[in-house]
Amino acid sequence: MSEFATIAVHGGTSNSDAHGALRPPIYDSVAFEHPDARSMQLTFEGRKPAHAYSRITNPTVSDFEQRISTLCGGGFVLAVSSGMAAISNTILALAGADTNIVTSRNLFGNTLSLFQKTLAPWGLETRCVDMTDLGAVATAIDGKTRAVFLETMTNPQLEVADCTAIAGICRDKNVPLIMDNTVMTPYLFDCKEAGVAIEVLSSTKYISGGATTLGGLIIDHGTFDWSNAPRLVERAEKFGRMALLSSLRQEVYRNLGACMAPNTAYLHTLGLETLKMRIEKSCGNAAEIAHFLNDHPRVRDVHYPGLESSQFHVLSNRQFKGRYGGILTFELDSQETCFALIDGLQLIRRATNINDNKSLIIHPASTIFAEYSAGEKEEMAIRPTTIRLSVGIEECDDIIADLADGLDALPSMRTGTSSAARQQQYA
Ligand SMILES: Cc1ncc(COP(=O)(O)O)c(C=O)c1O
Question: Is 83 in the pocket of ligand 1 (CB under 6 A)?
Answer without folding.
Answer: yes
